[in-house]
Amino acid sequence: MNRVFVLGSTKEPLMPCHPARARELLRKGKAAVFRMEPFTIILLNRADGDLQEIEFKVDPGSKTSGIALVASFKKGKTLVWAANLSHRGAAVHANLESRRSLRVGRRGRKTRYRKARFDNRTRKPNCGGKWLAPSIKSRVDNVAVWYGRINRLAPVTVAH
Predict the structure, then answer these.
(1) Spatial distance between the Cα atoms of 114 and 120, rounded to a whole number of angstroms
(2) 137 and 69, same structural domain?
């Protein structure tokens, strides 16, 4: 079961709590809903708390990637939060293929000949100094965006 993200009154991330505890805090008026997706509460009268080490883990995949937060407690490691990310790789590929077919069609019409211009383009680095295919870059960016979101909601100390 996923835990609920908790923010202090100054919007810094605290340790995620059990959903039952979050419901109790909301019912007593000690917290308010900050965000629905992923579900996050903000404490109204408390700014800080004890923090444990939380690891951000990624299981990359071509269509879906798994992301998880694992906390290190005295008892051992515990899964705090997990989700599956669906990637747009197939949609990106289909859009590029559609653009390509339109260009080819323009060259084949009864108009002046449109010269093929695929050899005069250089690939610029688009991801850390390397060139990645658009579908793979979309996948990398999707995981990076979710890492940033989770990093603002939980006290992540290590990323794998």
Answers:
(1) 14
(2) yes
